[in-house]
Design brief:
This protein has 255 residues and is an alpha+beta fold. The chain folds into two domains: 9-119, Jelly Rolls; 158-229, Winged helix-like DNA-binding domain superfamily/Winged helix DNA-binding domain (Arc Repressor Mutant, subunit A), CATH 1.10.10. The chain is built from ten helices and eleven strands. β5 (69-75) and β6 (81-87) form a beta hairpin. The two termini are 27 Å apart.
Length: 255
């Protein structure tokens, strides 16, 4: 796994005690987490880092912390792209997302810190802990819920609605309206041309829902943006909170 200079960047992150800042880890009993601590290595990931290309086998698992967001991006035979799912501090990134050859590319969308653990080490820990195994299985189910909702939205709804849904998800993860995302990145994730995203951003700005600069989008009217997002965001969050309430608390509790 490489950063922008080809090397992973280490981070000095406290690793003793709770909370860790990742909801999968924080949902574990304290003793379960203590067993994991010697295997967890903190590191920084930067925007644009490609953590794994299509078909690569992963030997590690990442637990994003804070603002870090990582996308699984599907790439077709012509090189066109679209985001399948994304993961922030509510989840984890690992072999369950890319263990099928040709499935997708893992790429960092928002800079932040992650905890990394070897695939084998995590498997051994899960074999010895029913609680940890249950959390890993539960997270896989949340990824399936995300992927199904994203596929439905992509097939049935206009780009404006899909872009609005993505911005709402990003705001939920950061718990802040100022989102570090470029129009080029949104075009890649939505599977559309950059000019299409430029038009959509202008429309949302004209309606007073966002402000945008070259590398940031600021949500100025969340309620209005939710109205544009075709109901997919609200439906997705309701399903995720039903399936995994420990990973997806009510909005007012998001950190």
């Amino acid at each position: 796994m490489a950063g922008g200079d080809g090397r992973a960047q280490s981070a000095q992150v406290p690793r003793s005690g709770l909370p860790m800042g990742n909801r999968v880890l924080d949902s574990l009993d304290r003793m379960e987490l203590v067993r994991m601590l010697p295997e967890l290595q903190p590191l920084i990931v930067s925007v644009g880092d490609v953590l794994a290309e299509t078909g690569e086998r992963l030997d590690w698992v990442l637990f994003p912390v804070g603002a870090a967001v990582i996308s699984l991006i599907a790439v077709d035979h012509d090189g066109r792209t679209a985001e399948a799912v994304s993961v922030g501090s509510e989840g984890m990134v690992g072999p369950e997302m890319t263990n099928l050859p040709g499935f997708g590319r893992l790429q960092v969308q928002m800079r932040g810190t992650c905890y990394r653990i070897g695939r084998g080490a995590l498997s051994d820990l899960a074999d010895a802990s029913a609680q940890l195994r249950g959390r890993l299985d539960l997270h896989c189910r949340t990824l399936l819920v995300q992927a199904l909702q994203a596929a439905t939205c992509a097939a049935l709804h206009p780009v404006e609605a899909r872009a609005s849904r993505w911005l709402l998800m990003a705001q939920d993860r950061l718990n802040h309206p100022d989102l570090p995302v470029t129009q080029e990145a949104l075009a890649t994730l939505l599977g559309v041309r950059r000019t299409t995203v430029t038009r959509v951003m202008a429309q949302l700005t004209g309606r007073g829902l966002i402000r945008h600069r070259r590398s940031r989008v600021i949500v100025t009217n969340r309620e209005g943006l939710e109205g544009v997002a075709c109901g997919c965001h609200a439906e997705l969050m309701a399903r995720l909170r039903q399936v995994a309430p420990a990973f997806y608390p009510p909005s007012r509790q998001l950190q």
